[in-house]
Design brief:
Layout lengths: L3 H6 L1 H9 L9 H37 L3 H12 L1 H23 L21 E5 L12 H7 L5 H8 L9 H20 L3 E2 L5 E2 L1 H7 L11 E2 L11 E3 L4 H5 L6 E3 L5 E10 L18 E11 L4 H19 L3 E5 L11 E9 L4 E10 L3 H6 L2 E3 L5 E2 L2 E9 H11 L7 E2 L5 H4 L3 E2 L2
Parallel strand pairs: 2-7, 6-12
Antiparallel strand pairs: 1-9, 3-5, 4-5, 7-8, 8-14, 9-10, 10-11, 11-14, 12-13, 15-16
Helix pairs in contact: 3-4, 3-5
The chain binds one RNA strand through helix 3 and helix 4.
RNA sequence: GGAGAGGUGGCUGAGUGGUCUAAAGCGACGGUUUGCUAAACCGUUGUACGAUUAACAUCGUACCGGGGGUUCGAAUCCCCCCCUCUCCGCCA
């Protein structure tokens, strides 16, 4: 959520930056300002009225104490209809406030000034490339062929269980998935200094609103209903990412400056409705309704957040470097960024069987956009309450990492070679039929 | 799921319609004293919104789990919801 004071004081900048997002939200800025103006006028009026009422009520109390009942009655009459007027104005304030905040909460974050202006993914500059595309002296298979021939993935039976868009890992497939998860958690907790947390996989709507997934993208998420009770709809949702519960851990808290930075790392499954994406390129495990992910979350002081974004991105890249997978890093342009983000790097890993790069990580600095929605603050050394900056990054998404991994390490005989770094987890150097 | 008890400031805890719109204690911070520490004493000690102001600041309003109601006036009375604890039932 944007700071209403920022909008009041820098209308032109806000309007211009919103416009650069290619989402035409800037037209709501004037409406917000007009509602905000109304609210302040009403507030001034009702508060003055309340001040008078409080004063007279106190006088009545004093008179009652002195047993001057007639004088007290007279004063009561005087203020009797003041209550109605106060109630009326209170109602108006609440209505205007609701409208104002309804718009505010639907406005995306402002892009950071270092973010290039652009319309779509085609305008995202490539920041750096690591490694190179592996060469094969045979026709490389894709992960679907490999997964089925090595009995690591069973797409037909997954569909039988849950419909399209779900994965059934079997035998070495399940072990590889689990090994990758554990490798990632060990790396980030041991080498990169993150604290591991294991959050609920189901959260209330306030958590989705806190990170900016609600109210704009409601149809993307799975709701959970307890038993056969449609009336319970809207109370709980399956998490689309660990960011949702983990970023909300300290919501409505005032942290101390000494606690920052907080760096959390969490493995969870992620559930996504992917409404509107069905039917296009959905075969395999590149776009699915459920996938595993190890997520990184940071809560930091504002002055540190851009340095922390760089190190978080480096932490995610380290995963691919250690696994020996070729990747590139893109800086998302203004038109391609997520709702809550002020600056985002995407990391795309090369998948030989696809002949394409796959997004396995997205590292974003949301600045104070989320902390304001969550009312998360920290007390500075000078005793002032400020909103911390919140960052999130995949470290990394698993299903696509799995794809790139098996496609990169496939051998001419159809087996998969396991690089030394994963061997202690998988307890083998090769997966074969 | 059933029954009961609760939810008050950083913490403990008093407060069942008005007289400072939260007593007292603890903790924390500042000061006095002190060779240093401790003790003692004195003082300070929340959050948000708004108005005035160049600013320091001053004033106002709201907040006692959340929301609604009664009243001139609600932490206090009434209604709904949420959460915690104890016991019972069910259960991985």
């Amino acid at each position: 959520m944007l700071d209403i004071k920022l909008i009041r004081e820098n209308v032109d900048i806000v309007r211009k930056r919103l416009a650069s997002r290619n989402a035409s939200e800037e037209k709501f800025v004037d409406e917000v300002l007009s509602l905000d103006d109304q609210r302040r006028k009403l507030l001034a009026e009702v508060e003055q009225l309340k001040a008078t009422r409080n004063r007279v009520s106190k006088e009545i109390g004093a008179l009652m104490g002195q047993k001057k009942l007639e004088e007290a009655e007279a004063k009561k009459k005087e203020t009797r209809d003041m209550g109605d007027r106060v109630a009326e104005l209170d109602k108006q304030v609440a209505e205007v406030e609701l409208k104002r905040d309804g718009i505010l909460i639907s406005l995306p974050n402002l892009p950071h000034e270092s973010v290039p202006i652009g319309k779509s993914f085609e305008d995202n500059p490539e920041i750096r490339v690591w490694g190179e595309k592996p060469k094969f002296d045979f026709q490389p298979k894709n992960h679907i062929e490999l997964g089925e021939s090595l009995k690591m993935l069973d797409f037909a039976r997954a569909t039988k269980l849950s419909g399209s868009g779900f994965i059934l890992y079997t035998h070495w497939g399940a072990k590889l998935e689990r090994s990758l998860i554990q490798f990632l958690l060990d790396l980030h907790t041991t080498d990169h200094g993150y604290i591991e947390v294991a959050p609920p996989h189901v959260v209330g709507p306030h958590c989705l609103e806190g990170v900016g997934q609600f109210p704009k993208f409601k149809d993307q998420y799975y709701g959970v209903v307890e038993g056969d009770r449609p009336d319970a709809m809207g109370k709980l949702y399956l998490i689309p990412t660990a960011e949702t519960p983990v970023a909300n851990i300290h919501r409505e808290e005032i942290l101390s400056a000494q606690q920052l930075p907080i760096r959390y790392c969490a493995y969870t499954p992620c559930f996504r409705g992917e409404a509107g994406a069905a039917g296009v390129g959905t075969r395999g495990m590149i776009r699915v309704h459920q996938f595993d992910k190890v997520e990184l979350i940071k809560i930091v002081k504002p002055e540190d957040s851009y340095a922390e974004l760089e190190s978080m991105t480096a932490n995610a890249e380290k995963v691919l470097q250690l696994l020996g997978l070729h990747y590139r890093v893109l800086l998302l342009c203004t038109g391609d960024m997520g709702f809550a983000s002020a600056k985002t790097y995407d990391i795309e890993v090369w998948a030989p069987g696809q002949g394409d790069y796959l997004e396995v990580s997205s590292c974003s600095n949301c600045e104070d956009f989320q902390s304001r929605r969550m009312n998360m603050r920290f007390k500075t050394e000078t005793g002032e309450n400020k909103m911390p900056h919140i960052l999130n990054g995949s470290g990394t998404a698993l299903a696509r990492l799995f794809v790139a991994f098996v496609e990169t390490y496939q051998q001419p005989d159809g087996s998969i070679k396991i690089p030394p770094i994963l061997q202690p987890y998988l307890k083998t150097d090769r997966i074969s039929a």
